[in-house]
Amino acid sequence: MAKGKSSEDSGLSEAQIAVHWKEEGYVYPSAQFIAQANMTDPAIFERFSLDNFPECFKEYADLLSWYDYWHTTLDTSDAPCWKWFVGGKINASYNCIDRHLKKHKNKAAIHFVPEPEDEAPAVITYQELYVRVNEFAALLRDFAKLKKGDRVTLHMPMTPELPVTMLACARLGIIHSEVFGGFSGQSCADRIVDSGSHVLITIDSYYRNGKLIDHKVNADIAVKTAQEKGQKVDKVLVWQRYPGQYHSKSEPVKGRDFIVNDVLKKYRDARVEPVKMPAEDPLFLMYTSGTTGKPKGCQHSTGGYLAYVAGTSKYVQDIHPEDVYWCMADIGWITGHSYIVYGPLALAASSVIYEGVPTYPDAGRPWRIAERLDVNIFHTAPTTIRMLRKAGPDEPQKYNYHFKHMTTVGEPIEPEVWRWYHKVVGKGEAIIVDTWWQTETGGFLCSTLPALQPMKPGSAGPAVPGIHPVIYDDERKELGAGAGKAGNICIRNPWPGAFQTIWGDRDRYVSTYYARYCKNKKSKDWRDWPYLTGDGALLAEDGYYRILGRLDDVINVAGHRLGTKELESAALTVPEIAEAAVVPVVDDLKGRVPDIYVSLKPGVKSGNDAQAKVTKAIEQEIGKIARPKNVYVVPDMPKTRSGKIMRRVLAAISNTLDIGDVMTLANPDVVEEIRVLVQGKKKVATKKGPEDIARFGDDG
Ligand code: WT7
Fold it and tell me: What is the pTM of this model?
């Protein structure tokens, strides 16, 4: 990080950065794929060129049904809070359900696959989804007294009640904020407080790894913690994994907790008119990690977001109504919102929701599901691909399924892993799209349009239609195609899927994403406001982008972002801990995992259970997903003379990389002490690591 810049800035100080795998050749789609593809017209790139911006996005908006057409495609008057399709009125629930009933009411909207294999998959048709969403919307309106603009927090796992809840909220214009089911009650509380939710929607239990997990207990923690932090939750609505049965050791609190399946009886056959929402009203919040402790509530719009996910689902995911589409992500992340729920359902696809872990009860499970449901579009993350390859490299060929299309998302995929995905999972028949994007961006930024652009293992691809990236170095100089140097990848232009702001914190929105490369802070011209993604990237001669990873203090674990500051503050809740520093370590399966260095308060003896306590605190405050690989108790942190912890040095030690010159530190001797503690006495490494690690926490 360059001196004097805010901690939310990303940093890149060396001009030439080593990339850790070589440029690959092209792999072409089959004639069979091209023959059936939704987008085969190369003129699309011209139509979505900057010359035709912003009107080009009408093509996506026209995939939807509008109550009122918009008068202004892009309103920049409140830059950089962009407004799309202003004047337009639309409802997301109507677009994902009602409008399909005429042709598709008896078609599967959702295939729910429970984790226990002896529990049969359940089909929810569009008609059935319509009924459930309407009844639950009536409950939200008349029983929970929620209305347009209210926020409601959902803490739900992968069962159909989650999309039913989201779509019922959307029907009424209630802003849903779903918290990943695996997050702790405390994490949920922070999001309840930040969003100002008075209602929490949860479920009693769900299956994970062969166990029926008690989930309701998290709601009790969430409500209690939120109350302590000043936000009162009046009602907790509890779905049941098995309607009519309650599986939780937490007694429902009288007057606060309500079993949804009981209350719903009152609303049998209720129908709720979808609320005609202004296009730019928020549809949902999705919290994500930043470089400071507090998660950011990314606010997504109704019209722009839905248009963008429908367009990219149609042309990048190549979804047709006849397809059986399975995205194995969790709906608790943006991938699930955009590409399990809103995008596919807007296109009347059949979307698969699998409750459990991919390797339960064995590594053949995903392929049995694919065979049974005849899935033909498959979507997952590199971390899962690596895990499935490790656990069952020959499993796919044992099952009779055929994918036409596969997606990878969330982190860079190594060419070697890409090839296994292509050859073994895809049986050499399926095309692959590597999709690069973020919670903030709502939908894809870079990928290949599968029938028009060849794949290149290890590269996400060119920008998708209507997205115009630019790579800047630290001096704001553009690094062009074939420059051979990596830099900060930004997007030149706004697009309809982009988040509108950080909930309740416009200043942080501007400073995190726009301040760095803004050309004129007073300008109302979008050209002056490039969007900073925080990723490092390299642009090859052919216009394909290779994404190298985060350049800020964010660790991408298994395709999901964890802020180091969040982990550090969780560690600091342990009374014995004086200081904590978190760094990423390369992990064969998860990509990156956190290592934590802690120092103890004076007088605390090492050898007590500080390590176990830190791990437990992190699980409790954030969730198991953030569990550190190692917790090292060190005598002192390596520090600059001004007292800043040198995380880069610790990252080098954790990854056995070249530590570089430490003589300018205030306490250079401690570095070798820590190195021996972590690596043993063997010789010091000299190699340079992947750039996100080599540059981690760099302060120039
Ligand atoms: C960060 C965003 C995208 C939805 C899921 C994660 C990294 C994402 C790729 C990719 C290389 C990728 C970036 C990005 N990332 N996709 N295809 N290749 N890196 O969303 O939690 O907001 O994380 O994930 O570093 O900034 P997220």
Answer: 0.93
